[in-house]
Write a structure and sequence with these properties.
alpha/beta; six-stranded parallel sheet; 13 strands; three-stranded antiparallel sheet
């Protein structure tokens, strides 16, 4: 009863002030504020609005900060998700009933990002992100590259190819083919050295010389560095960071250089697959023959495949909305 009286009084005040506002335009903003408050009271008392608020708590997932994990080292963050209550209410109030398909999601950003962390190797993506990446280290195996590119194209997959600098210099056409197919390019040093056993000066030379030849040949500046044979130490990681590159390792290894049976290799790799996986491979016969089966198997596990930059990105998979874009739950 008290609420009805209050609303009636507010309405009378609004009417009187509206009449006076014709003579006194300075009262217009005050009238608008009263109207907005009245609408807010009505909205908050709507059972539909209350039901949306209740569901919003169920769907909310907090953002995950980037961290230095004791085992996995640098791990990227992952956006959270929440319901935009007011936008969802605007969608549903016309029919006056709750419809989960009309809920509007928006992403929330982590407080700590990958770029905020000190230099550290990266072995996997965020374990909450249902995506994996294929890392193709290239210093040899030219004969298998066209077949691998064909399979990736047919399957709609983009990967990151880490190129040896001397290989790029000798094989500019193949390197160009990889870029033209839409794949990402990383740095794999120049002469495939044991990076943790060479001097700082030599580390810098290997990194810079490779970046230079990739830039000159492909007009690309790598953001990611994969140490040959996975050999690295803190100095290598720090020097890569000085060259504006993060050091990439892997969490699943095909061990394709041992010439395994392609079917057995795929079965073994799929058994180890996980959200955020970084799968190491090379242009070998085993990987070329098993690649299609591997990609299909990954997709059947409900995992998307992207390049390293996609995996490191904080944006969500499936919900897939950013802070400036919204969509319904059915999208």
């Amino acid at each position: 009863m008290k609420k009805i009286i209050v609303h009636a009084c507010v309405f009378c005040v609004v009417v009187l002030l509206s009449y006076g506002a014709v003579q006194n335009p300075f009262s217009t903003s005050y009238i608008d504020a009263i109207k907005e408050d009245s609408q807010m009271v009505a909205t908050n008392n709507d059972p539909l609005y209350a039901e949306i608020v209740t569901h919003a708590k169920k769907y909310m997932e907090p953002a995950t900060d980037a961290v230095i994990d004791q085992v996995w080292k640098a791990t990227p963050g992952y956006n959270g998700v929440e319901i935009d209550i007011d936008e969802s209410y605007e969608r549903m109030k016309l029919h006056g009933t709750f419809d989960a398909r009309q809920l509007v999601y928006r992403e929330t950003k982590p407080k700590v990002h990958l770029q905020d962390l000190p230099p550290a190797p990266i072995f996997r993506g965020n374990p909450q992100k249902p995506m994996v990446t294929l890392l193709v280290n290239v210093a040899w195996g030219n004969e298998y590259i066209p077949d691998m590119l064909k399979v990736m194209n047919e399957q709609g997959v983009k990967s990151t190819f880490f190129l040896d600098g001397s290989w790029v210099k000798k094989n500019p056409q193949l390197a160009t083919m990889i870029v033209e197919e839409g794949h990402e390019i990383g740095n794999h040093a120049y002469s495939h050295p044991d990076m943790q056993r060479i001097t700082i000066e030599r580390i810098d030379e290997e990194l810079q010389k490779t970046n230079d030849v990739i830039k000159a040949t492909l007009d690309v500046t790598p953001e990611w560095f994969a140490p040959p044979s996975g050999s690295y130490n803190d100095t290598v990681v720090a020097r890569a960071a000085k060259h504006n590159m993060k050091t990439i390792m892997w969490s699943v290894d095909t061990i394709d250089w041992r010439k395994p049976d392609p079917n057995e290799m795929v079965h073994r790799v799929l058994a180890k697959m996980h959200p955020g996986a970084m799968v190491l491979m090379h242009p070998t016969e085993a990987s070329a023959k098993g690649l299609e089966q591997l990609i299909i198997g990954i997709k059947e596990k409900g995992l998307k495949i992207g390049n390293v930059s996609d995996l490191m990105d904080e944006s969500r998979v499936h919900v897939g909305v950013s802070l400036d874009k919204k969509q319904g739950a059915a999208d």
